[in-house]
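Supplementary Methods S3. Complex input for the pyridoxal-5'-phosphate-bound model.
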Amino acid sequence: MTADIEIAQEPRVVTEIPGPRSRELHARRRAVVPPGVHSVLPVYIERAHGSIVVDVDGNHIVDVCGGIGVTTIGHTDDAVVAAATAQLQKVTHTLFTMTPYEPYVRVAEYLAQHVPGSTAAAPYKTLLMNSGAEAVENGVKIARKHTGRPGIAVLEHAYHGRTLLTSSMNHKAAPYALGYGPRAGDIYKAPNSYPLRDGLSGPEAAARTIAHLEKFAGAEDLACLVVEPIQGEGGFIVPADGYLPALAEWCRANGIVFIADEVQSGMARTGTVFAIEQFGVEPDIVLSAKGIAGGLPLAGITGRSEIMDASQPGGLGGTFGGNPVSCAAAVAVFEQIESEGLLAEAKRIEEVFGGGLRELAERHPAIAEVRGRGAMLAIELVKPGTLERDPELVNRVIAEAARRGVLLLSAGIHGEAIRFLPSLQFTDELAALVVRVLDETLTAAGA
Ligand SMILES: *Cc1c(COP(=O)(O)O)cnc(C)c1O
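Predicted complex, serialized as structure tokens:
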């Protein structure tokens, strides 16, 4: 993982950001790519390694987003590149539902060994697809088949994707669902746990969620409750202690499939393979994608065998689902989670980077909260002395950081948070640098 790093792990800004070549490319792109496909920072990347992306103008930018939590293992990780290259030369596609191959099975075996609740005697089973949204779609399908019920419960501040079903499950109508209706039906949105803003204990917040769902959906009509253990797009909201176990218990008592959407929080990101482990919950189904294959597209739906087995042969799958190259890359990611001690690295990042952020919060009253787990951290910005969200300040900080060669990303329903998704090999030096940039930009903004 740390082998020949030809790209120095530090920022180097040599032009304006975006530079002239990026601006040229952006003009070309605007002619042929629709604006609905939006780029947060129109800086065109030529190559990347570890925590650094290099743009077409030669700027070296510190990547604290990792393509939204995808390059958890770092960009162009040597072992992942080697495994994917070797697989490319063997076989790139057969269609697993035509003639299968081993890497798919190895991915399923790894997931069965690491989902809380799965045991050697009764291992969870896995279907592989291509994207997070497809994982959610299939999780819902499987839960409906198993329960024979239609209803889908989701939480406020949730994000589940941009397909027709998943865009209907998101908290934000704009930009994800607006104008693309009719939206999918039988979706029930309930209040979440948001300790900074609701002041509720976990059990209190769970009681509120459950009461809402019983009233507006009816437990016996619900196939599943889809929950992000730490909400991603919603602003890295960590629920209060006891919230998730209470929801899981209610699901079990009512025959509702508890689906943990770990598309963003999974794959060692938070210091455990799955974040749900830290909340003491055994999910019925867990969804993986983003970080699972080191940047290649792959998604997993992993669940209790009696739930997964409910679907008839041919009911699940898709042409590219579980592509062999993606699977080989995922196996390399799994091996490195072990061999490089990446779970401990996530905890190191929480301590060092999170510690730096907490220290900042003491000096900058605009930081209402530092939250998250492992290498999934966020700060929520407010008008000092209040809980009034300050998305403008978020945007100013992100823009100034970009000018200094640090790539940051907002989060939160109102864009009130800055989320940090560094790779697990993000060095303490880079963490200190990002904290310094935040400190200076917040000071310059008088916040
Ligand atoms: C990103 C994300 C998705 C959607 O994944 P895609 O691969 O973009 O379809 C679903 N759920 C969560 C929690 C996500 O963060």
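The domain at 82-339 is CATH 3.40.640.10 (Aspartate Aminotransferase; domain 2). The chain has a mean pLDDT of 97.
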